[in-house]
Amino acid sequence: MNTVGRKILIVDDNLEFTEMVKQHLNFEGFQTSIALNGKTAIEKTCSEFPELVLLDLKLPDIPGVEVLKRIKELNENTAIIVVTGYGGEQVAVDLMKAGATDFLLKPFEKESFLKAVKDALQIRDAQIEEKRTERDSSLEKFFPFLAHEIRNPLHAIGGALAIIQRRANLGDEFIAKSVQIIQEEVYHLNEFVRECLDFVRPPAKSRFVEIDINEIIPVIVNITFHIFEELSEKIKINTETEPTLPKVYANYEEIKQVFLNIVKNGVEAMSEGGELKIKTSFTPDPYPGFVEVIFIDNGSGVKKEKMKNLFQPFFTTKIRGTGLGLAICRRIITDRHHGKIHIESEEGKGTKVTVELPCGQAMCISKEKEL
To answer: What are the tens digits of pLDDT across the range 222-249?
Structure first.
């Protein structure tokens, strides 16, 4: 599994032990943080969103079991390994019932410790994926029905509006403004229906071809400046593309849709002006490697407490957003192209979106066989 950048919180009041564990984990590429008591552990769970917590049972302020329960209340997806020098099998069973993923007795060997950490993260990832699959399955059944029920009256409204436009006095400012409002609302609902259907649309494998990601970038930039013509003087888009970038086996239109959505989000977050950077690169390991596309804006950013919901259907930070844009992006990248999409953001400073796409047709075919 890829361990680079995965967040682990070490909760123990023994400084010598925490430093040793931190060194082991940092060497493997993990991003670590330390809490010397229960109160700090709870605070860091809220502010840093660790994927895994290594929790000692004997803490100076709050019992470890209470800290465990509080962490699971804050985020049920956080994996917890209890690491202690006390307790036996019954204690381990009780902790598992309380939500712990694993139980390790001190002292332990480095290899067995690292294996337990990686196993706990894999269990966490599998549980999250299972929940998402169940939710998406329900939406796949509901969205077509919803789209049908909305689209029929929308056609009727659109037809009636066309008649009103032909017969009404559009020189009347009040009538003209009313017609404009109806047009905007009809457009908004039509976009919502389209995004619902995009979310459940099965992948069109016949449209998968080898594409050059570098060729999509200028297309996206041109479309963006056309959409946000009024912001073209205030916003700069700089691109840095690797000239020897290998091709990826993908659906051109879907990848373009993802990139356009990300860039639009970035531009909308810089309504007062700013800079958006787009960079492409290639990473050869693991074979056959992957193409990485990074989008960085210096816009308004996202609050920490909202980060975990960014890919959830219907969650939005926009006044008029449908909350399906990023959910569709993740579905396209992870489910249909077997890639990765990751977001880092800080309120008031900006957002970084990283997209990874596996190289070559062979990678996509092998992934399909695994599924």
So the answer is: 989 888 888 778 899 999 999 999 999 8
Partnered with residue 11 across adjacent β-strands are 35, 55
Residue 213 Cα distances to 6, 150, 161, 250, angstroms: 27, 36, 42, 10
**Best CA proximity match to 279, nearest among 332, 254, 243:** 243
Q: Which residues contact 347 (CB under 8 A, 6 or more apart)?
A: 300, 301, 302, 303, 304
> CATH number of the domain at 7-108, please?
3.40.50.2300
Whether the Cβ atoms of residue 176 and residue 170 lie closer than 8 Å to each other: yes
* Per-domain residue ranges of the chain: 7-108, 135-200, 206-370
Question: Contact at 8 Å (CB) between 214 and 256?
Answer: no
CATH number attached to the domain at 206-370: 3.30.565.10
Q: Alpha-carbon distance 261 to 281, whole Å?
A: 20
Per residue in 245-297, pLDDT (tens digit) is 999 989 898 999 899 999 999 999 998 889 999 999 998 877 778 999 999 99
The model carries a pTM of 0.55
Residue whose structure tokens are 């984990």: 25
